[in-house]
Design goal:
Elements lengths: L11 H24 L9 E3 L3 E4 L9 E9 L5 E11 L11 E6 L8 E7 L13 E12 L4 E3 L8
Length: 160
């Protein structure tokens, strides 16, 4: 004779709950065991809030750019800085394709030195953006140093 006892875990709801628990365990396990950079706690820089300014400046850009101050806190020279950001405006969209940009600046910044940097928007826009351009999120995703070391923030943990 067959037994008709029904375990909760063999029902549709039980199977879904098991799948959710397995997914959560795998997701949080991946984050804890390797999803984040091991040196993320040692942020080698400080950065100011980015500001959009229209017009030509310093032979860097003709139409406008995103300006920010960058302080190198590491004991070696920074050679390049990769920045990720999204630029939006309530009044218009002047970007050629997408307004989420990853841009690498080839800048040498000595240990303990601060430098005002500009990300030129000329390659990303078809018209001068309006003054209400909002830069958010904005974060440094990679810094390459003169000693060959590289610092990365792949997930934007330090959004400005």
């Amino acid at each position: 004779m067959k037994s008709k006892t029904c375990s909760f875990w063999s029902t549709k709801t039980g199977i879904i709950l098991i799948a959710v628990f397995v997914f959560m365990a795998a997701f949080f396990g991946a984050l804890l065991l390797g999803g984040c950079a091991s040196n993320i706690d040692e942020v080698p820089y400080a950065v100011s809030r980015p500001v959009y300014k229209s017009g030509e400046n310093r032979n860097i850009c003709k139409m406008g750019g995103i300006y920010f101050d960058f302080l190198n806190k590491k004991n070696v020279q920074a050679e390049s800085i990769t920045v990720c950001f999204t630029a939006t405006s309530e009044s218009s969209n002047t970007f050629i394709s997408k307004n989420t940009i990853e841009h690498t600046l080839e800048e040498s910044i000595g240990s303990g030195k601060m430098k005002n940097l500009c990300i030129p928007l000329d390659d990303y826009i078809f018209a001068v953006p309006p003054e209400d351009l909002l830069i958010d999120p904005f974060y440094i995703s990679e810094i390459r140093f003169s000693d060959g070391s590289v610092w990365r923030d792949k997930f934007g943990a330090y959004i400005q």
